[in-house]
Specification:
The chain is α/β, with parallel strands linked by helices and about 260 residues long. It has a single domain (about 1-250), classed as 3-Layer(aba) Sandwich (Beta-carbonic Anhydrase, Chain A), CATH 3.40.1050.10. It is about 45% helix and about 10% strand. It is built from eleven helices and five strands; from the N terminus they run H-H-H-E-H-E-H-E-H-H-H-H-H-E-E-H. A five-stranded mixed β-sheet has the order 2-1-3-4-5, sandwiched between helices. It is globular. The relative contact order is 0.12. Residues about 1-30 have low confidence and may be disordered.
């Protein structure tokens, strides 16, 4: 059964990802994968990367020419937000290429107004069927906030605290949920909790994102990238639905999907 699943993933990846000597040049408006197919493509790409079998798709002159002729919305299959950290090269670790991923990068992979607006563009206009909140091990932003919350902070430049304040609730929850962990031991828990916090912040601020997920047109998933070995740990999708259900009961959630 595993062999058939692997073959299916490879087939999907070949259809949507592999560079085929300019095959897309005569085929505009490529069919977009389903949310589950897109997630499978991301997982397959990371597996190739980790195993040293990257195919570096969609990086040739034909793909660049296509990018100058067609809308990315006909090709991109995932929106990804991750940290600005140089150890997290998004297209490389997913073995993807030009017009494959709509990428948002910000310290701490936080989802504030600018980032949420970018996600809305990725889901509603680029029409990607999946959105990934990708945290990573050894995150400097989460580490700094964790230290500060535990009383071991240090001075920061004036614009950094408002950038990373979205991480504070995640750190506090990580501490509360792991009372036997102290100091640096809290950081891995806080990194994962920060992914869930980002998903909650998105749902609180973005009615259109909630609507797309509820309609089955898109999936929101969490993951954590290990900078030391390239592996991505995929977090349970069921928790995203739990967060969405929680947000739908919150009277403080944004209700108007469209700007006035």
């Amino acid at each position: 059964m595993r062999e058939s699943i692997v073959k299916s993933v490879v087939a999907i990846s070949c259809l949507f990802v592999l560079t085929t000597g300019g095959a897309f040049a005569s085929e505009s408006k490529a069919v977009k994968p389903s949310p589950d197919e897109a997630i499978a493509m991301l997982k397959a790409g990371n597996e190739r990367f980790v195993n040293g079998h990257s195919i570096h798709p969609h990086t040739d002159a034909a793909r660049l020419a296509l990018a100058g002729q067609e809308d990315q919305g006909d090709h991109a299959y995932a929106t990804v937000i991750t940290c600005s950290d140089s150890r997290v090269p998004v297209e490389i670790l997913f073995d993807a290429g030009v017009m494959d991923l709509f990428v948002i990068r910000v310290a701490g992979n936080v989802l504030d107004v600018d980032e949420v607006g970018s996600v809305e563009y990725g889901l509603a206009h680029v029409r990607t069927p999946v959105f990934v909140v990708l945290g990573h091990t050894q995150c400097g932003a989460v580490t700094a906030v964790t230290n500060a919350v535990q009383g071991h902070g240090h001075p920061l430049e004036r614009n950094i605290p408002p950038l990373v304040d979205n991480i504070i609730p995640a750190v506090k929850k990580a501490i509360a949920d792991n009372p036997n962990s102290h100091g640096a031991e809290v950081i891995p828990y806080a990194i994962e909790e920060n992914v869930w916090q980002g998903i909650e912040d998105l749902f609180m601020k973005s009615p259109v994102s909630r609507d797309l997920v509820k309609a089955g047109k898109a999936k929101v998933v969490g993951a954590v990238y290990d900078v030391s070995n390239g592996h991505i740990k995929w977090l349970p999708e069921a928790k995203t639905i739990d967060i969405l259900t929680k947000v739908e009961k919150n009277d403080q959630r944004a209700m108007e999907a469209m700007a006035q």
